[in-house]
DUF218 domain-containing protein
Amino acid sequence: MLVAVVLICFGLLVGFQLIGSRSRQLLDSNGLEMYGGRPAPFAGFSNLVMVAGHAVFTSANYVNADAESSWWLETYQQAAGQAQTFVDHIRAGIKEAARDPRALLMFSGGETRREAGPKSEAQSYWAVADAADWYGQAASVRGRAVTEEHARDSFENLLFSVCRFRELTGHYPLNITVVSYAFKEGRFASLHRDAIAFPASRFFYVGTPAAESVQTAAREGEAKVAAMYKEDPYGCNGALHEKRLLRDPYRRRLPYPQGCPEMEALFTYCGPRLYQGRLPWD
């Protein structure tokens, strides 16, 4: 009797392992991601245009999207012209996507501000774009504009967007274009790109100016943040980790790397040295 029970338990364990293994195999023989027999909804797109979010839209009036009062702003963001920079990012992302019919436009940013309510930065940017009829590019871009709604900082903007792209297309991006502030180019194009080991020849950056009233403070602040990422490239310790916790007031569970199993080791890696394992774009 005991032997039979042991054999049954062993059989169940093997079965569960096989099921778990199969659930992680998100590619069929044709390279298409499958959910219940359905192909990935955006399988035809090969390039990623990612717009990094910086705030949550809180107004009911999208006509005034360029007004600071329309957004929940942290103290350091409360400056004349700040809201216009968010709109500039949205428009720049749309422009880049419109130029490339094989690009998937992705707004990235989670529910980072408790006072703003359970609304994500990504949905805020998408809604602002939609209310503005995609700035004349609705027919071309709206149907391939998506969101990534869990990122809490710039590194997660990049990492999570690559995973989300894989989830939606069934493959990884051939090229990546990031849209953010010009003063953050070094952080994204060097520090974060190096951290995920994405080829420099296939990584592009579109930077827009910070609000004129805060440009000096922005450059000084960026120097401090860049120094922290040089010591902690994955943002998993110290002040960078604490910032992530503060930017997750609604304790959203991360769905990743469920949609990008080939990146699982990178998602779990934490250390001062760059990750040395194999990645899908090697």
